[in-house]
Design brief:
Length: 412
């Protein structure tokens, strides 16, 4: 007997079958099921349901640098509280929304000055200019380009809201796809089919934050998780869907189930695509399901705790990475411009110049990271350099063209 399509209800033949991603590809999902949707129904549900889900989760996909099977998460236009326009990029980095191009005519020809938000954007601009000015050497220009990091003046507010009819259907479809893979007949999942097939079907899920349904949750991992459990004793086919460790929903796929007991979990870290082994508790009865639908298991404190548990470690790691980058860049800048002669000992005067150059480059990051004044940031940068300097002197007293390596950076 051929399976039936969960969207239109008609028979699926080998010719009309399609691969359906259990978790939307846009947020890093990989595993697929067959015998679940017709090709055109797959396209239709992807275009309407999964697209809305992908859009709602796009800022998270960018923040966590989701690794997609195909393509990359498109950068997202955002405006800071100070009115600056940026593009949110992978890792939560902000790039100039538009390149700035300055054109001048000189006695010998023309010059273009290009400021772009990324090397890729700069290359695009240069290649565009090259069409009209074939003399432009794109690679040489890029190689000699100065890379500068600046910081947004205003704060960035991301809308992390999730929910609604279309993304709700995408979420339920994920649980139903896993049930199908686990051998639970989709035609027994009446609540889910009713919701997915009818324009006015009752949503068969509710957000759940009163406690953690995942046993021994891996800390600080923004994983996706789908779980299903069919229990003949209660007759319930239950599901659980979680995106980025933040959006957590319990689904009731069907009732009056009399088949074999079945359970399955699919979880992955979308930053790498690595699957995780998780155990999900889904022992709810019909009364509990009614309470979940009624938003009685959704609470603000639980939501905030979920957000903090995933965001804090990631933000902390990002801050450290950004700090290390700022230090490395400032030290290199100071070394390159202090005027020291390679293969000779650094003099006290060299160190004085380096300290000043280092502080010039380091202060903007400190000011951005701590919110202190420019003057205070400069003082902190100098104090930091003095600490590092002692470290450098003790370890690198011998003459060398390159007086220190990256790992010698940082107070000890
Ligand atoms: Zn169909």
């Amino acid at each position: 007997m051929n399976p039936t399509c969960v969207y239109c209800g008609l028979e699926i033949t080998p010719e009309t079958d399609s691969d359906e991603h259990m978790i939307s590809e846009a947020v890093g999902g990989r595993r697929t099921v067959r015998g679940f949707l017709h090709g055109p129904c797959n396209n239709e549900t992807g275009r309407i349901w999964d697209a809305e889900l992908g859009e709602q989760l796009r800022s998270l996909a960018l923040l966590f640098s989701v690794k997609r099977q195909r393509g990359q998460t498109p950068r997202m236009p955002i405006t800071t509280t100070a009115g600056e326009a940026f593009l949110l990029g992978p890792g939560g980095g902000l790039e100039m929304a538009r390149p700035e191009i300055r054109h001048a005519r000189t006695a010998t020809g023309e010059t273009f000055q290009v400021a772009a938000g990324s090397v890729a954007m700069a290359r695009q601009v240069l290649e565009g200019k090259k069409r009209k000015h074939p003399g432009i050497d794109v690679e040489a220009t890029l190689a000699s380009a100065e890379i500068r990091h600046t910081y947004a003046q205003g704060a960035v507010h991301l809308d992390l809201g999730f929910g609604g009819e279309m993304s709700g259907r995408s979420l339920v479809k994920s649980a139903l796809a896993l049930a199908h893979e686990a051998g639970i007949p989709t035609e027994k999942c009446g609540d889910a089919l009713n919701y997915l097939r009818g324009a006015n079907g009752e949503p068969c899920f509710g957000f759940y934050y009163v406690d953690d349904l995942i046993a021994a949750r891996p800390a600080g991992v923004p994983f996706h998780c789908v779980a299903v459990e069919a229990t003949p004793a209660s007759g319930l086919i239950l599901g659980y869907v979680e995106f980025f460790g933040l959006h957590r929903a319990v689904v009731c796929l069907g009732r009056r189930y009399t088949g074999k007991a079945a359970r399955r979990v699919y979880a992955l870290d979308p930053r790498s695509g690595t699957e995780l082994k998780l155990s999900v508790r889904l022992n709810f009865d019909e009364t509990a399901v009614a309470a979940i639908y009624n938003c009685e298991r959704d609470e603000t404190a639980g939501r905030e705790a979920a957000f903090a548990s995933v965001f804090e470690p990631v933000l902390q790691a990002q801050r450290e990475k950004e700090r290390d980058r700022a230090i490395r860049e400032a030290i290199r800048y100071a070394w390159d411009n202090c005027g020291a002669v390679p293969d000779t000992l650094l003099t006290v005067a060299d160190f004085d110049v380096m300290r000043r150059l280092f502080a010039d480059r380091m202060a903007p990051w400190l000011q951005h990271a701590t919110g202190c004044t420019e003057e205070s940031a400069h003082r902190q940068a100098i104090a930091f350099f003095v600490q590092v300097q002692r470290n450098l002197l003790s370890r690198h007293a011998r003459p060398s063209g390159k007086p220190f390596s990256d790992e010698s950076i940082g107070p000890t």
